[in-house]
């Protein structure tokens, strides 16, 4: 069976939000050196600000990836804004653990690209942590290119 994307329901988003918020917080702890408490607070705040009306947020494409009746993952993309008038943005893409390794992330990106093309959106961007080599390989194979790079170094306060 082929993977399809369907608009996410409010119930689906509510179920996925806790995992998304915790996962982003874990990344902030690991890659930004934040305390777990501060990271979770920032994660919850940023995600809720980005989706003020939940699944009905204007300009947010929240799609559930399905193979037949089985949910295999999801993708969240925002349409271009005044700040970035030519570029849609992938905020999150996730394939549920038990469905990984079947090309579903690749197909979700291809399907969202087709939807964006129909809307006349000329570019799609994303952020990826530098240690996420699997995702980096996927994005490169899909034609994404590095357009900026951030670097950081942890400083030992003891000197």
From TrEMBL:
Keywords on record: Acyltransferase, Ribonucleoprotein, Ribosomal protein, Transferase
InterPro entries: Acyl_CoA_acyltransferase (IPR016181), GNAT_dom (IPR000182), YpeA/RimI_acetyltransf (IPR050680)
One Gene Ontology molecular-function label: acyltransferase activity, transferring groups other than amino-acyl groups
One Pfam family named in its UniProt record: Acetyltransf_1
Chain coiled-coil ranges: none
Domain N-acetyltransferase: 18-159
UniProt keyword Secreted present: no
Region forming the signal peptide: none
Annotated GO CC locations: ribosome
Entry keyword annotation includes Ribonucleoprotein: yes
Superkingdom, natural source: Bacteria
Name by which UniProt lists this protein: Ribosomal protein S18 acetylase RimI-like enzyme
């Amino acid at each position: 069976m082929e993977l399809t994307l369907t608009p996410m329901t409010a119930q689906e988003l509510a179920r996925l939000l806790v995992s998304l918020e915790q996962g982003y917080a874990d990344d902030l702890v690991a890659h930004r050196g934040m305390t777990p408490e501060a990271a979770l607070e920032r994660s919850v705040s940023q995600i809720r600000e980005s989706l003020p009306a939940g699944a009905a947020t204007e300009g947010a494409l929240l799609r559930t990836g399905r193979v037949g009746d089985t949910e295999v993952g999801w993708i969240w993309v925002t349409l271009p804004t005044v700040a970035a008038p030519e570029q849609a943005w992938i905020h999150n893409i996730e394939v549920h653990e038990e469905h990984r390794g079947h090309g579903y992330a690749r197909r979700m990106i291809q399907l969202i690209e087709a939807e964006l093309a129909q809307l006349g959106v000329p570019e799609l961007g994303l952020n990826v942590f530098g240690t996420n080599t699997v995702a980096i390989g996927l994005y490169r194979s899909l034609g994404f290119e590095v357009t900026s790079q951030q670097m950081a170094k942890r400083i030992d306060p003891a000197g």
